[in-house]
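Encode chain A's predicted structure.
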Amino acid sequence: MVKKVHVIVGVALVGCLTTSGCAAGGVPAKDTPKITPSTGGALSGEIKIWSWDVAAKALRRMAPEFEKANPGVKVQVVDIGYDNAYDKITVGLKSNSGLPDVITLEDGRIPGYAENFPHGLVDLSGVAGKYRADFDQAKWAAATSGGKLFALPWDSAPVGLFYRRDLFKQAGVDAGSIITWDDAIKAGEKVKQATGKRLFVSDLTNPDMFTTLLQQLGQGYFKGGRVAVSSPAAVRALTLLKTLRDKDLLQNERGWDGMVTATKQGKAATQPTAAWWTGTLTGEMPELSGKFGVVPLPAFDADGVRTSANGGSALAITSQTRNQNTAWAFVEWLLARKDNQVSMMRTEALFPAYLPALTDPLFDQSQPYFGGQRVNRLFADEVRDIPPVELTGDDAQAREVLKTAVSGVLLDGDDPKTALDRAAARIASATGRPVGG
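Encoded structure for chain A:
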């Protein structure tokens, strides 16, 4: 859902993770609350949900259907805006007051809240565990902390390689021949020589692309609780980016707006990013219809994984709810039903994390914008291959440290292993975790 998941890290939560007292939230800590399965009977009462942007639009559209099926229930959806969302959520968790029944959380936020406010979110394992095999396993892992499920996955963000058909044709490059990153580098050099365009856009001041490549290799910032940003996989990911930079194949642009503008201006021939990019292209660049195609993400090895993840969200129930059963009934109805997930894909372009939805004929429709290609089927087939990785409450701190390491390598020419070794030591010092993995 949220295309800036690796781009913006909330100040409130980062601050919480680097100071004392947050775990208790200002009140005595207690065991993680659990949902007691309903014994039946009609649902009733009002629930309030916090969300933002397209997710809030989807919730507002779907809520009346749930109310119609459950007379006596009222669902209030509040669009709290993205910019201050996590500040509000953190304050509510810390004070143990002011939160609604249900909140939207991006995947990367869940472990931090679960670890630092163990009493703040409801453990859904008892009622949602039966659905585990029906969801994107990377998403399920992201919503799990300490063996407890703190949110039900909503949308997935499988990553592929978007490419400009016209530029590839001009350079005489067959996109289907790109199997590995080595192939992509050779193709990029050929395209740049023929067209003057670099391979893809990347903000070299942050670790977003590094994070995506690291997950493709099956790893996060931590592994087995240890700091793993200097592992062989991490060094391999950053070395790839340095190779691309050294060959002048990266178009350096700042942030989300820079990537959108550069793509619109045709500064790069490809973009390795998630399925939600289709909505950005069709919505903001209609004049480029027919010029894009998509292939799986290049692998590090010929038989390697050809996707990753970048984004996605889930719905969590707060311990402050006074209508737990109705809150869970709504979350279950919205996210664990094929028809509802397909409806949100069709109308709001929220790519389902619920696997049964991916069998719907909607995903087999050709898309004129992409030259008639069945782009959604390509991404749907990738979802099961997204590598699950370990997320922790210390990821936010690690990401801040990695900004310096990655930018030093890509902008100043630092050695990848040396830079990552320094980063690992800094993260270990800040978090108290040992280096390893």
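The domain at 159-308+390-431 is CATH 3.40.190.10 (D-Maltodextrin-Binding Protein; domain 2).
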